[in-house]
Batch of 4 targets.
Target 1
Amino acid sequence: QKEVEQNSGPLSVPEGAIASLNCTYSDRGSQSFFWYRQYSGKSPELIMFIYSNGDKEDGRFTAQLNKASQYVSLLIRDSQPSDSATYLCAVGVPTGGGNKLTFGTGTQLKVEL
Amino acid sequence: SAVISQKPSRDICQRGTSLTIQCQVDSQVTMMFWYRQQPGQSLTLIATANQGSEATYESGFVIDKFPISRPNLTFSTLTVSNMSPEDSSIYLCSVRDRGGTEAFFGQGTRLTVV
């Protein structure tokens, strides 16, 4: 069973702090890694993707990937109340027809005033 | 990124009936997928909609229950057949741009079976 695991939370951080969201995966064949944000009652929205070991930064968001440890994380700097949502980690494995994504169960983030 | 229109956005259906969900994309895309998200849970892939051929179903999902069509590179439908309350869920269409690996989602269809 190929799995993607996340702590369900809720993770509470004060406004302005750094939120750190973590994800581990079991399939060593995984080659692409994604973070989605999902507000309650809405569909997932792609925030970041990363393919190579190391860090990738986009505005307040930084994705970190360590394939040896099978670990991917998302850092949100200067957290805002509008960042309060569920964050889904997704891992892509190449198949004959393209990448197949497996999603984690998500981490609920609450940014408190 | 592709603009994805999914309809209906929600529906309440009687058990034993069927509902067809449509997904329309504003550009040609290589891959289209259908996911289910049950209350409080993450996304589960139902099937990959293949253009011009039968869909590829994931373990636990069968064509008789979830028939899928994909007549061209911009449109797909998912039918939830002979519905029961256990089918109450959000159904999401997802696409990947030609040559890309990033997946984008439609706004979802919230289905309640009574």
Note: Chain B has no helices and eleven strands.
Target 2
Amino acid sequence: DSGVTQTPKHLITATGQRVTLRCSPRSGDLSVYWYQQSLDQGLQFLIQYYNGEERAKGNILERFSAQQFPDLHSELNLSSLELGDSALYFCASSGLVGTGELFFGEGSRLTVL
Amino acid sequence: AQKVTQAQTEISVVEKEDVTLDCVYETRDTTYYLFWYKQPPSGELVFLIRRNSFDEQNEISGRYSWNFQKSTSSFNFTITASQVVDSAVYFCALPLIKAAGNKLTFGGGTRVLVKP
């Protein structure tokens, strides 16, 4: 158990809809990262937050947004969903910056029909 | 740009055989970290090892060992006497940019199937 909690574990929705994925980092970790894992793109970094502020953006679509709240949990919002957004979305947290060690949640599997 | 290549997409072995996973990376940084993660069938990503580019000594942890060769930009991973529980996808990773903190770029992964 990594200590990172993600909900929901599975989500099925239709094209055009909007969903919110939630992540609670390990106790004490200030950084939260979101990754997308799909068959064609592999594991891709989406976005990072540190103590409530956006720190870095990766390959995140404009239809997607995220935020980190004062209690350090984070939410990833996916809107105007397309079939190609079907993927496993991981949240990870880290303690020491620069060590590279990420602690991943179990992921949220999104299926867009 | 940072890049990680895992040329082997899938390896199938019989239990107790050794299996070596290749990882080749590209980076302009002179110092960097390299990582291996394991993704078992249950889906979560599990951290296995971090290696600093300063340290080229091989590392062994139980049945796992890692061979880091800076001269060839490789960081290979060997599972000795494989077991069915080793069946998973293994990812090699590198920070996206130096001082990128913990933002990692991952290779495509190698799926290891260990048959009883």
Note: DSSP finds no helices and twelve strands in chain B.
Target 3
Amino acid sequence: AQRVTQPEKLLSVFKGAPVELKCNYSYSGSPELFWYVQYSRQRLQLLLRHISRESIKGFTADLNKGETSFHLKKPFAQEEDSAMYYCALALGSARQLTFGSGTQLTVLP
Amino acid sequence: NAGVTQTPKFQVLKTGQSMTLQCAQDMNHEYMSWYRQDPGMGLRLIHYSVGAGITDQGEVPNGYNVSRSTTEDFPLRLLSAAPSQTSVYFCASSYTRGGGINSPLHFGNGTRLTVT
């Protein structure tokens, strides 16, 4: 069963426009959710985690348990935000991460 | 500080051949894992280890073996390569458990494997 769903494979926005990358999860307990990002020619790296309620590079993500969502948002997209974004859920006794299928974000000039 | 190092970066195999993908980390991380990345399917967990001498299966373990004889190394073995194993393979590690709240995953640069 798909535990993490990212419905958009590709997303394009213009520079300065708001951007929202969708993530829905399936989990009955208290979820541990993360966003990881992979910039071109760089390693996959952690962007942010829900528990911290932090803003990294202008991105925020709010956990909505009612809608089982953890959408990633930024009010004004920049060209350097172009990357592949993965939503991930920690599962199991080892809290191993289950990733969504990813969304390729392209910010157009 | 090298972090997570994977070798080789690229590999081409013929069907039926075997090989080992190497992964080493120098951060004294207890947890290590292998993922494969396929278009449209994201990253899927193959095997993971919570410490030396302990390994467990992930979502897609068939056709792969792992061992964890030391904290630093976590090699992934393809026993008899098949075209379906053509993918990009990522090794990742973290201090404890699988990338939970206080222990983000650190990824290697990946190994691009093609099986013909």
Note: The interface with chain B takes residues 6, 9, 32, 34, 36, 43-46, 49, 51, 86, 88, 90, 92, 94-102 of chain A (CB under 8 Å).
Target 4
Amino acid sequence: AQTVTQSQPEMSVQEAETVTLSCTYDTSENNYYLFWYKQPPSRQMILVIRQEAYKQQNATENRFSVNFQKAAKSFSLKISDSQLGDTAMYFCAFMKLNSGAGSYQLTFGKGTKLSVIP
Amino acid sequence: DAGITQSPRHKVTETGTPVTLRCHQTENHRYMYWYRQDPGHGLRLIHYSYGVKDTDKGEVSDGYSVSRSKTEDFLLTLESATSSQTSVYFCATKGTGNTEAFFGQGTRLTVV
């Protein structure tokens, strides 16, 4: 079974500054995806960014980027130029892609509550 | 936005009563999931479906059952609700050939 660990229950950052959220995972699979989801107070789950395990290049989406270290099983999220609207819970998630038991299930970490301070 | 509707959005029920939550999707997605979200636990998978009448258990399936008789609907049933099942429940769907999972708005269930 896969496990996802987010070691920072809460973080804060000043508006316009940069913050990095940590995530580690444990798997014996080679073919998988990693995701960061955002959950604002509205409770809606929003995909922020995804990373394919077989791609060495780190994914970026505007102000959001990841540092994917496959050997270390680490997948951190960097938010640049933090905005008040970035205040939310952030969840790291893992999806196994091979066929068989557990394929295509999303396994989530416990989340990091990020507060952006004006 | 993906067309995923959860009903009801809020429910208060008494211990020992049966409860059914419904997830309806208009995306023709093959995969559907039920998660529960509790403070300090993130989202935990209850059951998932990989096709009509094809379902499997997740990590917290005790006390829950599911049914999927057609592509668009995935029902989660609490046979006899307990206070430990007070939670926010999320449905998610995923299509074949893509990796993004889309989530419903969640159902807040309170068992008193």
Note: Chain B touches chain A at residues 31, 33, 35, 40-45, 48, 50, 56, 58-59, 88, 90, 92, 94, 99-101, 103, 105-106 (CB under 8 Å).
